[in-house]
């Protein structure tokens, strides 16, 4: 099992590294749902789901029967989900929302950050330092 906080920390580190002006406008989650849900699907499996929002589609995942959304954390609670509003998406559909080069770069940065956070990479890196500080202040639930 994977700790969702480690994934969230790795994603946060990845978004901070990315030089896309839309994503670095002070809100790292802005415009990230398609790229993030594709990454989570690509690495952890499950399904890609979508829900219509004011400005288009919002994408998230279902893994092991649980809703997982790293760009809108409140959707993790099943009680917050209206099943009539959710549609199944696919990697092929979501593929059109970003450039392949952007995804490849995002994927590599995520893997590096994730490996550092779980102890496989350079423990002196900024993502690892931030994660180690949070561990000393929080106890994580594994899910």
Structural account:
The protein is α+β, with helices and mostly antiparallel strands and 143 residues long. The protein has one domain. The chain contains 5 helices and 4 strands. The chain has helices at residues 4-17, 33-44, 91-94, 100-117, 126-137; strands at residues 47-53, 56-63, 66-68, 86-88. Strands 3-2-1-4 form a 4-stranded antiparallel β-sheet, covered by helices on one side. Strand 2 (56-63) and strand 3 form a beta hairpin. The protein is globular and about 45 Å long. Mean pLDDT is 75; it is low at 22-28 and 134-143.
Number of strands: 4
The structural class is alpha+beta
Q: State the helix count.
A: 5
Oligomer: single chain
The geometry reads as: globular
Descriptive key words:
143 residues, disordered C terminus, 5 helices
Chain-wise SSE layout:
Blueprint (H helix, E strand, L loop, with lengths): L3 H14 L15 H12 L2 E7 L2 E8 L2 E3 L17 E3 L2 H4 L5 H18 L8 H12 L6
Antiparallel strand pairs: 1-2, 1-4, 2-3
Concise summary:
With 143 residues, this protein is an alpha+beta fold. Helices cover 42% and strands 15% of the residues. It is globular, with a radius of gyration of 15 Å.
